[in-house]
Each structure stands twice: as structure tokens, then as C-alpha cells.
Amino acid sequence: AKKEGPGVSRSYTPEMDKKLRERRSMRRELASAIERGELVVFYQPQAEIAGKITGFEALLRWRHPTRGWVSPGTFIPLAEESRLIVPIGEWVLREVCREAASWPLPLGVAVNLSPVQFQHSDLPGLIRSILLETGLASNQLELEITEGVLMDDSGRIASILREVKALGVRIAMDDFGSGYSSLSYLQSFPFDKIKIDRTFVTKIEDNPQSAAIVRAVLGLAHGLRLPVLAEGVETEEELAFLAREGCDHVQGYYIGRPLPIAEYAGVVGRI
Ligand code: C2E
Ligand code: CA
Ligand code: CA
Ligand code: CA
């Protein structure tokens, strides 16, 4: 580790040095993860409140040769900083569309998009060619975007989203209520669905504030005629609360965990 001196923050520790080197090597390894076949897509069911599974959210995993399973919470930020998220995001989109096109049942599939993917590529063109190439019906595909996307040049983003929607693809507002989601986003951008963030759902029973926020989001979204999906549903009690309040769709460990698609063979109609 370095000696302390002028320009070196007092809070700098050998511990941080190690973390920094760790992140650098992980970033290097991530660059070759696609070609090495280390990226894996898991699928988590999404259901109507009454129980019928309508589709899945695609959630990326990194099967690292020595580190084991690395969570997207760790490597997505690294991929965004280094812009590796552009090729990785393209790989995910292609992989997921190819997979969903092979299902006997025409279930929906939702893919997360990073803000960085909007800055870079011709996103509508990419989506259009992947749909053509894989043969997936556009109405089976949904894209989940967070407010991070909308905070950029809003006119440009709105027009990209309109182009994507013109293909027949749906757009969901992800993690609603967390971060700085502004109510005006709901008016300025053409969403088809609102996803309530897991942090509010987890505390529904024991935190009156969370319950109030969930109720308010449901009222607001329904006022705008937008269906709502609650994420992170882990218990029967949470599901019952959401049903009582008129939530439309749910997702969470109580319904099903993110797993390799083979584990859901029966659901997609392969059995
Ligand atoms: P997210 O989009 O909010 O996804 C939901 C997260 O909640 C997932 O974490 C999921 O595994 C977890 N989850 C679902 N149900 C439950 C539950 O009942 N209880 C608990 N405790 N957790 C639940 P995961 O898979 O670790 O992904 C974390 C984040 O990484 C995602 O949050 C998303 O922002 C990002 N991410 C994942 N895959 C991709 C991807 O392909 N592209 C991009 N850009 N981001 C991705
Ligand atoms: Ca999501
Ligand atoms: Ca979330
Ligand atoms: Ca709870």
C-alpha cells in the first residue's frame, strides 16, 4: 500500500487498494465472459394476481470459473462503467429472444435494459433485427427500464421508446418508487406497465408507510390505466395484501425463484 502524503485522502486504506485491484481484474475478466460462455440467463416467473403465469423476467448471472456465481448487483455496475454492458446487453437480448421463440406456449419475456444501452447503439434497429432473426413475436417481448434511462435527454429517450413500441414491444417502468422516479415520467413516456420496487413490498405488513406507498402507486397507475406488477413477493400475506388492494401482477420467491429455464419446462409447455 502507498504511504500517506499530500493528495492522498486520510480515509484511504490498503483495504480499498485491494478492492480497487479486485474490481479492475473483474472488469478485465468480464470482457471475455461472453466468449467464454460464462454468462447465463435465469428466468423468474411473472404471474397474474390470481395465479396464472404469464411470462418471465430474464435475470443475468455470471458463472465465474473461480469466484463462482457472481450476482448482477456486482457486475452490472462494472459493465456499465466500462460500457461492456452494450455487447452484454445485446447478447442477453438475442439469447432471451431465441429462447422464448422456442417455447411451445407464447409466454411473455421481460429483459432489463441499462441506460448506457440507450446512449450507444441504434436500439430500435437492434431490437427489430433480433426479433426478425429469432422469429419471436414482438408482443411477447417486454423491456424493463429504470428512471436512470429517463433522466438523460428526455426528448430523445421518448422518441426511442416510441420507435420501440411501434415494433409491438411493451415497455415497463422498473423499480418504481425507489430512487428519484418522478410522477411526470408516467406522463412523458409511453409505459405499458409499472413495477413496484421490492423494498416496499417486503415491508407491507409491518410498515404502514410502505403499505401507503404501495396503495398510492396502485391508485396512481390505475388512474392512468396502467397495470401494476409488484416485485419481491415472498409470503402469502404479501400476496393477500396485494390482491386486496387490486394489484394486477406479481413476481417473487413466493411465486417462483429465478432459475435456469429447464426448471420451468412444464410452464413453457415443453412437458
Ligand atoms: P431488478 O430488475 O429489480 O430485478 C429483481 C431482483 O430481485 C432480481 O435480483 C431478483 O432475483 C430479485 N428477486 C426477485 N424476487 C425476489 C424475492 O421474492 N425476494 C428477494 N429478496 N429478491 C427477489 P438479481 O437477479 O440479483 O438482479 C439484480 C439487478 O440486476 C436487477 O434488479 C437488474 O437491475 C439487474 N439485472 C439483472 N439482469 C440484468 C440484465 O440482463 N441487464 C441489465 N441491464 N440489468 C440486469
Ligand atoms: Ca427488472
Ligand atoms: Ca427492483
Ligand atoms: Ca414481508
Task: Describe the protein's architecture and organization.
The chain has 271 residues and is an alpha/beta fold. 42% of the residues lie in helices and 19% in strands. The protein is built from 11 helices and 9 strands. It has an 8-stranded mixed barrel. Helix 3 runs parallel beside helix 5 and helix 5 packs parallel to helix 7 (154-166). The longest helix is centred in the first third of the chain and has 18 residues, at 14-31. The radius of gyration is 20 Å and the shape is globular. The model has no long low-confidence stretch (mean pLDDT 93). Bound molecules: ligand C2E and calcium ion (3 copies). One calcium ion is lined by residues 57, 112, 144, 174. Residues 23-271 form the EAL domain. This is Diguanylate cyclase (GGDEF)-like protein/PAS domain S-box-containing protein.
